């Protein structure tokens, strides 16, 4: 019985170690994108926005913008992107669509605001995975990763014996780990 128990502990340690090593890369990526997504109200982790405002010098003839005036405006703003189309969002506002950006023009004040969203390198890719946008095969990878973390959590219970293990300090810390999310659920849901 003692040798069987010892071999189970050894097997648990080996599996815990190997699955732990396998989960390191995934955990680091999920942690980085998780922190980025947690602060989405302060910055956009997926896109960086290039924005500038300029004063135009030439008003549209008769106050009504036409194709020629819009193309002249794009040229005046020195925009290299391909012009697509435009439309008036209101009598005083005009929106110009370019290949990868937009220009909003306040016609009475001749103020033009250029705005372009560019994918933020690294973060947009890992957030894409974190939010499971690809679906398909990635869903299975993410599910296996979640099961790997579950295994690490459960097998970790048996890693340390004695008063530092699950029946001592480890048990109190485990209980605290359950109480923290339960407390937040209680306070936010009541």
Whole-number total of structural domains: 2
| Count of alpha and pi helical runs | 5
Q: What do the pLDDT scores average to?
A: 94
End-to-end separation in angstroms reads: 50 Å
Task: Give me the secondary-structure category.
Answer: alpha+beta
**Low-confidence parts:** none
Strand order of the largest sheet: 1-5-4-3-2
**Can you write the helix and strand succession as a string?**
HEHEEEEHHH
Binned strand content: 15-25%
- The strand count comes to 5
The shape, in one word, is elongated
- Please give the share of residues in helix: 40-55%
Largest sheet: 5 strands, antiparallel
Rounded radius of gyration (Å): 28 Å
Describe the structure.
The chain has 190 residues and is of the alpha+beta class. The protein has 2 domains: 2-42 and 122-189, no CATH class; 47-119, no CATH class. Helices cover 52% and strands 20% of the residues. The protein has 5 helices and 5 strands; from the N terminus they run H-E-H-E-E-E-E-H-H-H. Strand 3 and strand 4 form a beta hairpin. Helix 1 packs across helix 3 and helix 1 packs across helix 4. The chain is elongated. The protein starts with a helix and ends with a helix.
List the helices and strands and how they pair.
Elements lengths: L1 H37 L8 E9 L11 H10 L6 E8 L2 E6 L2 E6 L4 E9 L3 H8 L5 H22 L11 H21 L1
Antiparallel strand pairs: 1-5, 2-3, 3-4, 4-5
Helix pairs in contact: 1-3, 1-4
Q: Can you describe this structure in just a few lines?
A:
This protein has 190 residues and is an alpha+beta fold.
């Amino acid at each position: 019985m003692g040798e069987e128990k010892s071999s189970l502990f050894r097997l648990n340690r080996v599996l815990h170690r190997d699955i732990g090593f396998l989960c390191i890369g995934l955990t680091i990526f999920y942690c980085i994108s998780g922190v980025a997504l947690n602060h989405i109200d302060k910055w956009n982790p997926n896109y960086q926005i290039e924005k500038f405002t300029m004063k135009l010098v030439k008003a549209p003839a008769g106050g009504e913008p036409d194709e020629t005036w819009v193309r002249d405006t794009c040229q005046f703003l020195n925009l290299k992107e391909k012009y697509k189309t435009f439309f008036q969002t209101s009598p005083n506002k005009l929106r110009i669509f370019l290949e990868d950006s937009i220009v909003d023009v306040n016609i009475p004040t001749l103020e033009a605001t250029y705005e372009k969203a560019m994918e933020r390198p690294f973060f947009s890719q890992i957030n894409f995975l974190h939010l499971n946008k690809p679906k398909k095969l990635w869903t299975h990878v993410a599910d296996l990763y979640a099961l790997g973390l579950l295994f690490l959590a459960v097998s970790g219970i048996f890693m340390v014996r004695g008063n530092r293990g699950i029946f001592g300090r480890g048990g109190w810390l485990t209980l605290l780990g359950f109480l923290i999310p339960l407390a937040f659920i209680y306070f936010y849901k009541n």
